[in-house]
Amino acid sequence: MATYRNRPAYVGGGLGVRFALARLITAAAAIAAGIIGLAVVLHILGAKTSNSVVNAIHQAGSWLSSWSHGLFSIQNGDVSMAVNWGIAAVVYLVAATFIARALAR
Known about the structure:
70% of the residues lie in helices and 0% in strands. The chain is built from 3 helices and no strands. 14% of the residues are buried.
């Protein structure tokens, strides 16, 4: 005997769509934060930007965090990059969490 509780969340009604959209927003923010974090790690470790993969990751991370460049002017360039780009990654994750929770209500 099937009840409404046995149905998957994505079947019928708007609630499943909202949950799917919340998961999509959370996943997009996690990917963006991951790209930014990977770009920072590659820069700190001294990866050569002449490598096409490293360059692509660095350019993507730079574009995603462009609004946060120069928030803090720290003397050490590596630390300044890590702090400013890290703030962008955290803001993406926090904003996505708030938006996803609002959608899931």
